[in-house]
Amino acid sequence: MEPRPVRRSQRQSASKDSPSKKSRKETGREEVGGGGDENEMDVEESAEHVEENGEQEIEDSSHNTHQPEICPGCMRYFWRFVLLVLLSTSACLLAYKIIPILRRTADSVKHPPRAVEAEKFADHLTLLETQFPSQRSDLWKRSKIHLEKHLNTAHPTEPVSLIFTSGLKAEKTLKCLAQGLASSFSSALNASVLHIDGASKASQDSDEVKLDVDSQLQAAFEGDKPVAVIHRFEELPPGSTLIFYRYCDHENAAYKQVFLLFTVLLPQDEIQNRQSLKEVEEAVQDYVKARLVGSGNQMAFNEMDADKYGGLWSRISHLVLPVVSEKEVEQKGC
Fold first, then answer.
1. Any alpha helices (H) in 65-156, and if so which ranges?
2. Which parts of this chain are annotated as the region Disordered (predicted)?
3. Are residues 177 and 282 both part of a single domain?
4. N- to C-terminal Cα distance for the chain?
5. How far apart are CA 225 and CA 261, in angstroms?
6. Do 89 and 152 lie in a common domain?
């Protein structure tokens, strides 16, 4: 057999072709390498482009977050409104301070200063104390301070009032002492005293009594009687007592340079010395309420009820003082 030269030649041709293949591989690698560089450049350019777009978007978003501009006309109206509110508030505060002054000025023109001799009141009160030696020291001390304060005020802003109360065994003492204190006060004003007896009006029509008491008080206070004693206040017809709102309503009272003294007779023999002034006041309040306030729930406007009584009591009960019996006075009278 002949040797196979074809295979050797094939090997030689393969070996001869290998450099070209090798060169092609190298060329392919170079082409691949060159393509990689170009891709890297494209990536960098796209990244820069993204960053630029991001910065622009951030700038745009920052511009978009700005608040819209307010028109100058709106701001002008707003500040005008603020100025109007400030001026209105200032005017209200000024009126709040000036109106009371104007009222006092008007009262001083309508009611000129009183000619007061306060020392006369002190002298008469000292004499009265000797005539009623059994009374508590609190009665003299507190009534003196309470009434002198009003006398020493040139233009009082409200009337002065107090309540004397006693048990059944001191009825005459209660009446005489009330008269004596009222006379002592009126002596400082060189004036007289009006006396109203509630017990004598107990069975009369409430509206008629109310009109009668009103006319008496008005005539007295506009005349020469700036002092009124309302004896046995608890005996007045309930509805008639509403008239004292007009005369005892603090700074809204119709007359301010006056003194109203109420007396209340409690349904017990005597007020004990061990009872405090607070206990006495509560006893008087409860008793008068029981006498004046009706039991019905529906009340007419001109009748007394619990709410009206509460308001009235707060106006007349500035000072409640107990009176005990004086043996000589109970036997001989005033």
1. 72-110, 118-131, 137-151
2. 1-66
3. yes
4. 183
5. 13
6. no
54 burial type by CB count under 10 A (0-12 exposed, 13-18 middle, 19+ buried): exposed
Cα–Cα distance between 290 and 284 in angstroms, integer? 10
183 lies in the same domain as 98: no
Confidence of residue 203 (pLDDT cuts 50, 70, 90): very high
pLDDT mean across residues, the chain: 80
Q: Is residue 220 part of a domain?
A: yes
DSSP state of 125: H
pTM more than 0.70: no
> Could you read off the pLDDT of 219-248 as tens digits, one per residue?
999 999 999 999 999 999 999 999 999 999
Q: How far apart are CA 286 and CA 189, in angstroms?
A: 35
CA angle 228, 230, 235 (to 5 degrees): 165
Residue at 14: amino acid letter: A
**Euclidean distance between CA atoms 84 and 80, whole angstroms:** 6
